Amino acid sequence: MNVLIPGLSGFCPGVKNAENRIFDALNSDPTDSYTVLGMMINNRKYIEYLKEKNIETVDELSSIKKGTTVVIRTHGIDRKLQSSLSDDFNLIDLTCRNVKRVQEIIKDHSERGAMVFITGKKSHPEVIGLQSYGMNTLILENIEELDEFIFNPELGGRRFNPGDYSEIFVTSQTTGGRKLFESAIEKISRKWPDAVIESFDSICPVTEKKEVEALSLQSDADISFVIGDPLSSNANKLFKRLKDSDSHTLFIQDVSELKDLNIDFSKVKTSLVVSSASTPQFVESEVIEYLRSR
Fold first, then answer.
1. Mean of the pLDDT values across residues 22-37?
2. What is the mean pLDDT of residues 187-194?
3. What one-character-per-residue DSSP string does 230-286 give?
4. Are strands 167-172 and 158-159 parallel, antiparallel or unpaired?
5. What would the mean pLDDT of 281-287 be, rounded to a whole number?
6. 293 phi and psi, to 5 degrees?
7. Is the pTM for the entire model greater than 0.70?
8. What pLDDT score was predicted for residue 156?
9. What CATH number does residue 259 fall under?
10. How far apart are CA 227 and CA 235, in angstroms?
11. Both 69 and 127 in a single domain?
């Protein structure tokens, strides 16, 4: 079978950089112990791989052993937590440079007295970290939440008044949806036309280019596969875009899930394989090898 693969499939530059840095550290001092606070990337296969390399992953601060080097995940963490960790541990900060830039921009606007709106998933580690860099923030998961806030603008137990802030600032989770981000700016501008409104487009251009490239290849494929972990926002967004374009699109985590589908490939001449920004190459390679053998 012929297998089409977008050039940007797989790890994004931020994840590649994080992987290089953690293994450079491990190779330079293999006697040191390394612990990632939270999943380094949202892919459980990769977390298992790190464990095989003696890089532990923990969810709780209390689980970190004294003397270990603490690794900050690519999504970043809470600002105060990172500051306190730096007092007690040696840190390797693997926060994606795009995420770090948004953190600093939110901090800067907040210190100037802005009200900050962040579009994205409230439970996502990146968004939790971003929110900690602002003083007055509101997370918007969907446009209905903004409609609700506009109708009943309560913030921290008091009525929201744009005049109380130097400006309204809008930004997004780096793997968030563009439609929500742009809709939020448009609605906020219409609701409060006299307010100073600024925005920063923080949506990762690499993931957007990958989606565009995948969509352009999809018309030449009989079936499409998106490889990722259901925990990954990027993987879910990628799958939705391809599924909306062609119903013959399936979401898989690895080659074992692909085999379990028992697909009849007798009439499939060409398939498209696209991996999310947090899908390791070894997982993608196994899927591609299996499909090419059909």
1. 92
2. 93
3. TT-HHHHHHHHHHHHH-SSEEEESSHHHHHHT---GGG--EEEEEE-TT--HHHHHH
4. unpaired
5. 97
6. -85, -5
7. yes
8. 72
9. 3.40.1010.20
10. 7
11. no
* Residue found under tokens 């600093």: 104
pLDDT confidence of 210, banded at 50, 70, 90? very high
Nearest-angstrom CA–CA distance, 117 and 115: 7
Q: Residue 57 phi/psi, 5° resolution?
A: -125, 130
Alpha carbons 159 and 157: distance in angstroms, whole number:
7
Residues 105 and 80 in one domain: no
pLDDT of 66: 87
Question: Is residue 175 classed as helix, strand or coil in its secondary structure?
Answer: coil
**Which residue has 């962040």 as its token pair?**
118
Question: Looking at the 3D structure of the chain, how many domains does it have?
Answer: 3
Where is the domain boundary, 65, 96, 127? 96
Ramachandran quadrant class, 157 (left: phi over 0; alpha: psi -120 to 50; beta: rest): left
- Residue 153 pLDDT: 82
CA-nearest of 187, 152, 151, 154 to 168 is 187
CA distance 40 to 46: 9
Residue holding tokens 């970190």?
Answer: 64
Q: Which of 294, 217, 230, 227 is nearest to 255 (CA)?
A: 227
Beta-strand ranges (E) seen in the chain are 2-4, 34-37, 55-58, 69-72, 90-93, 114-119, 137-140, 154-155, 158-159, 167-172, 197-199, 223-227, 249-252, 270-275
φ and ψ at residue 167, rounded to 5 degrees: -165, 170
Task: Inform me whether the pLDDT recorded for 158 exceeds 80.
Answer: no
Domain that holds residue 215: 2-9+205-293
Question: Sheet containing 34-37: which strands, arranged edge to edge?
Answer: 55-58, 34-37, 69-72, 90-93
pLDDT of residue 150: 85
Predicted confidence (pLDDT) at residue 157 exceeds the cutoff of 80:
no
Query: Looking at the structure, do residues 225 and 176 belong to the same domain, yes or no?
Result: no
